[in-house]
Every structure is written in structure tokens, then in C-alpha cells.
Design a protein that fits this description.
The chain is mainly beta and 587 residues long. 4% of the residues lie in helices and 40% in strands. A hairpin with a 2-residue loop joins strand 46 and strand 47. The radius of gyration is 25 Å and the shape is globular.
């Protein structure tokens, strides 16, 4: 039996040896020669590339940020660096879209250090003005030098460690060395996966840490990127593991959160073989409305340089064979290689992505790909001293319509990193919101964008909402009872309409029953919201056969034969709602 100290050292060694991007980047730096700092070379005139900021060791360097940057209510983008800062353990930073950079917190010691992942944002609307909280994880530091889960309040500047990981040899082992930040699920809590595939939650509003029972993953090893939620009725969060799986080349997995959010399971959905299907998937999965997952595997494939793959969310989980796209062979090629970042929806069936290597200069490419596999390289990365480029961060679309990301290389201090944008030819402004797409009747929602002080109308799926302007970069609106699934839209005083790229899912809510009692055969009106597409109404355990959805806020139903006193239940494609009161069946 090894001592706990030896066990922890073994865990640290295992994790350090299996980390993919830092060793690969340094290897490329060592074998490449010095080149002149140049701009990225355009291959496709429809997009433009801009290097906005070059990182340095004093204020933070090597921003891997597997996942995406997080958007604050101040219209800044927030992230982390792996190195640099006062303790050379990384920094938490914010930047404007024009590259005005600010280091906000220096990692190190008990506060944790060396974060590889990015951040998840929560806008607390219980205060005026609202406060922005950012959640993340570190791979080192904390009480046991095994990493931490942390929270940073960008409004007050207060940093708090929520948990220090502990690696032991018993059932309480929480895995340690988490590399991806926890994300919000439909229940309003955050969920993450640790180094050994264990699921943990951060329970709002107290932000208490819980290791979910029954969640040992076995073949899932430290996913680099955060998990992704599929739908409001799906208790599964989907992710990729850069190694592990049945063959040691990584896997696609799903995390199933069991009722009450205190237990869960990890299921390996697909194990990469290291053959034509690829190996070592690192970037987050993108899920389209039809239930198809899009991802990247950073190595192997027919030509050894990685693939873009798809897989369905429904059993038998059909994996694309052959992959959606296979990158060309060679260190220098036409399309790039080693896609560690994930794919970003860019409108229609188009997705944007990035490679760490390949291309004419061997320093990576930026590209777009369609859902049918049509691939177009957009830019060659060649600036700075190798490893110039190394885009490990998945692009995020901002309110100005442009896409922003990070590279761990760049033209400044060698290997320090770059903040850049990829701009479409005719960027259209948009809005977004936090923290997930599952919205509840009368729930206040923060809408983020630009020029919002001039808002004159807000709609949820076409239904007008009450709202309060907050600033030029955000407003707060209440989900109206008539809201339908679909984009959020804001009309400005200029007449311009901006809408969200995401579609909202309105969760069903029952407010009252009229009447609240009566015999079998009584016609009852159920008032609430989110009732569009209702598939079932029940009185206790008895299903009603005669009901009509009058509007998204009203259902008319006849009390069925066999009904007994109890809650009324409404089921829609987005979930199930129970009445706050019992319906009393009068005999």
C-alpha cells in the first residue's frame, strides 16, 4: 500500500506527463528556428485577422484557456494564463475587444496555481448593480498542491478558494488536477469533472463543493475542456477526455446527473482507437439543434494530423466514419494539423476552428468547415518566434459580431501568448445572456451586448418582456408568460434589431389552477408559462385525455376519470412542472 504522499506525487507525475498542449508547444519551440514577427497570412478574403495584445511573463503568459473566454457585464473578456504574474503561477485577466489588458489576480500558493482552463461566468442579479462571479479551477496549489476550485468576484475583486482537491486511495478520492472549469446545468448549479473522472458540483447560492457519489469515471482522464449541456430535459453533460478510454487515445463521455444533484455517473460513449478516427480530443464539443456533437481530435487520423468528427447524442451514438474531415499529412501542409481547440458556430451550417500546427509555416491555421465537411483554410499563422500561434482556446462570438480567441504563442515574448480576433466581412451585432439557455417564467435574465442603453423593446421568442436598462453593455429583462423557445431580440431606438445566436428554452411553470377543486369532468384552466408543445397533463398519477393548449401561458383541461387529490403535472419538450397546490377531487 503506497502512502498518500507517494500517491499524490504519482498523480502529479501522471498528470504532468499526459498534458498534451504545453509539452507539444515547447517541443515545437525547441525544434523550430527564429523567424521574423509577421502578421497572419490571409488565405480567404472573407475574414480578417487582428492581433490585439501580446502577453508577457510579468503580467501573465501562455493563456491556454481550453474552452472559451468568458464575457462580463462590462463587455470585457475574462480568462486565465498558465504562467507569469507575481508568483509565475498564472493570472486571472480581463481584456477589452481592442486589447486593453488588465491582470486582476495573481495565482500561487494556497490560492492555487497554473490554471489550464478558462472561466465560467455567473451574473448575480440579486444586487444593484449586478455582480459578476467567475468560476474556475487550477491544476496546482491549494492546501494539498493538487489544485483548487475558485470563485472571483469581478465587481469587488474578492477571490475565494471553494475547494482544495485531495487525492487519496479511498472512496473519497476527488481526482485532483481538474483542468476544465465547472459549467452551469439546468438546475442552476455548476458541475465539473476532475482528473480521475469524478463529478463535482458547486451548489448555488452558497457555492458549496460536493463530490457526487457513484461518479467514478474509470476510463475518463482529466478533460481539458468544459462539458456541454445538450437540452433542458437532458440530465447529461457531454465532454471529451484527451486520453483514457478503452484504448488510451481519449474518449467522448457523458455525465449523467441523478435527481437532487448529489449523485451521478460517467459513461464512456466512444473510445478513440488512434487510427483513422483520430486520437486525443481536447476542445469542447459543439452540439447542434438536431442532436449532433461536433468535435476535434488533435492527432492520428488517416494522415496522422488529426480529424474533425461528429457523433450523435442518442444511442447507439453513431460516430462519423470516416470523420467529417481529416487533416492532410506533413508538418507543412495546406490545411493545418493538431486541432486542440473546439469548433464555434458561425451562422448557418458554418463552424470556425483553429490548428496548433501545420500550414505552410508549420505554425497552425485558422479555418472554417461546414456541417457537410467542406473545409476552407482562412489564415496561416507565422508570426513571432515559434511556437507562434498555438491557438488552444475555442473562439467565442462577441456582441460586435466578431470572434475572439487566445494563442499560447505569439510575436511578443517567445511563447507568451496572443489575444486576437477573427472578423467576418459583414459582422452583425448580436446579444447573449448568462448562464444557460434554460429560462423560467418571471426569472430575471441579464442580456449582454453593445448599445443597449437605447433599447426600446425586448422579446423572448417573439413575446414582449418587461426590462430595465442597466448600461450600454447590459440590460435585465423578465421572462414573459407568453415566451416561446427561440432567440432573444432587442430593438434599439435607431430601429436596429439585434438578436441572440443562441435559442432560449422556456421551462414549464405552473402558477395556479382555476378552479383548484371539483369533481371528475370539471374544466380546469392551468395558468403559468412555457406550455408550448405540451405533451401530457396529469392529475396525480392519472393522465388527462382531454386538454387544449390555449397559449404558452394557459392550458384548458378536463379532470379525468380515476383522478385523485394531488398535484397537477404538465410535461413539455423542455421538462415537467408541478402545481404549487393540490387539486382537490370532490367525490
Amino acid at each position: 500500500m503506497k502512502s498518500n504522499e507517494n500517491y499524490r506525487e504519482g498523480m502529479k507525475s501522471l498528470t504532468a506527463n499526459r498534458r498534451f498542449a504545453p509539452p507539444l508547444s515547447f517541443l515545437r519551440w525547441a525544434v523550430c528556428s527564429l523567424v521574423l514577427a509577421l502578421a497572419a497570412m490571409p488565405l480567404h478574403a472573407q475574414f480578417t485577422f487582428t492581433d490585439w495584445y501580446d502577453f508577457d511573463s510579468a503580467t501573465g503568459s501562455m493563456p491556454f484557456n481550453y474552452g472559451t473566454l468568458a464575457v462580463g457585464s462590462d463587455a470585457r473578456l475574462y480568462g486565465t494564463t498558465y504562467y507569469g504574474g507575481t508568483h509565475n503561477q498564472g493570472v486571472l485577466f480581463a481584456t477589452t475587444t481592442l486589447g486593453v489588458y488588465a491582470p486582476l489576480f495573481d495565482f500561487g500558493g494556497l490560492n492555487g496555481g497554473a490554471p489550464l482552463g478558462g472561466l465560467t461566468v455567473f451574473h448575480d442579479l440579486s444586487t444593484n448593480p449586478p455582480q459578476d462571479y467567475f468560476y474556475g479551477v487550477t491544476t496546482a496549489g491549494g492546501k494539498n498542491d493538487l489544485g483548487t476550485v475558485f470563485r472571483y468576484n469581478a465587481t469587488t475583486g474578492i477571490y475565494k478558494v471553494l475547494h482544495s482537491f485531495t487525492a487519496t486511495e479511498n472512496d473519497a478520492d476527488d481526482g485532483a488536477f481538474a483542468e476544465a472549469p465547472p459549467v452551469f446545468a439546468a438546475d442552476g448549479n455548476l458541475y465539473g469533472v476532475t482528473g480521475l473522472g469524478r463529478i463535482f458540483s458547486i451548489k448555488r447560492p452558497n457555492d458549496s463543493y460536493h463530490l457526487l457519489s457513484g461518479s467514478a469515471g474509470g476510463t475518463v482522464t482529466a478533460p481539458l475542456s468544459p462539458v456541454t449541456e445538450y437540452s433542458p430535459t437532458d440530465t447529461d453533460l457531454w465532454g471529451v477526455s484527451i486520453d483514457g478510454g478503452q484504448n488510451g487515445y481519449g474518449s467522448v463521455f457523458k455525465v449523467t446527473i441523478l435527481p437532487a444533484g448529489m449523485a451521478g455517473t460517467v459513461t464512456t460513449v466512444y473510445s478513440f482507437t488512434g487510427g483513422n478516427d483520430g486520437a486525443y480530443p481536447g476542445g469542447p464539443l459543439t452540439i447542434d439543434a438536431g442532436g449532433t456533437l461536433y468535435g476535434t481530435a488533435s492527432a492520428a487520423g488517416l494522415n496522422g494530423n488529426g480529424v474533425i468528427f461528429t457523433i450523435g447524442v442518442n444511442s447507439p451514438y453513431t460516430f462519423s466514419n470516416p470523420p467529417l474531415y481529416t487533416f492532410d499529412a506533413g508538418f507543412h501542409n495546406t490545411d493545418g494539423s493538431w486541432p486542440v481547440a473546439g469548433l464555434t458556430p458561425a451562422g448557418g451550417n458554418l463552424y470556425l476552428g483553429a490548428n496548433e500546427g501545420g500550414g505552410t509555416y508549420g505554425n497552425g491555421t485558422l479555418f472554417d468547415v461546414t456541417s457537410t465537411g467542406t473545409f476552407t483554410p482562412l489564415f496561416e499563422l507565422q508570426e513571432g518566434l515559434p511556437p507562434s500561434g498555438d491557438p488552444t482556446t475555442t473562439l467565442i462570438q462577441f456582441g460586435d459580431g466578431n470572434f475572439y480567441g487566445l494563442m499560447s504563442g505569439g510575436p511578443g515574448t517567445p511563447g507568451a501568448g496572443t489575444f486576437y480576433s477573427l472578423n467576418p466581412p459583414n459582422p452583425y451585432r448580436n446579444i447573449t445572456w448568462c448562464c444557460n439557455t434554460n429560462l423560467i417564467l418571471d426569472q430575471p435574465v441579464m442580456i449582454l451586448g453593445l448599445g443597449l442603453e437605447g433599447a426600446v423593446q425586448v422579446t423572448f421568442g417573439g413575446a414582449q418582456a418587461q426590462f430595465q436598462p442597466g448600461s450600454d453593455t447590459y440590460l435585465i429583462a423578465d421572462v414573459p408568460s407568453e415566451a416561446l423557445d427561440g432567440p432573444l431580440a432587442v430593438v434599439l431606438a435607431t430601429g436596429e434589431q439585434v438578436q441572440s445566436v443562441q435559442s432560449a428554452h422556456i421551462l414549464p411553470t405552473i402558477l395556479n389552477l382555476d378552479p383548484s377543486s371539483g369533481p371528475v369532468g370539471t374544466t380546469v384552466v392551468i395558468a403559468g408559462g412555457g406550455f408550448a408543445g405540451t405533451t401530457m397533463v396529469k392529475f396525480g398519477s392519472t393522465q388527462a385525455t382531454n386538454f387544449t393548449v390555449l397559449s404558452p401561458a394557459l392550458i384548458q383541461v378536463v379532470v379525468p376519470e380515476g383522478a385523485k387529490t394531488g398535484k397537477v403535472e404538465v410535461t413539455t419538450p423542455n421538462g415537467t412542472a408541478l402545481s404549487p397546490e393540490n387539486f382537490k377531487v370532490i367525490k
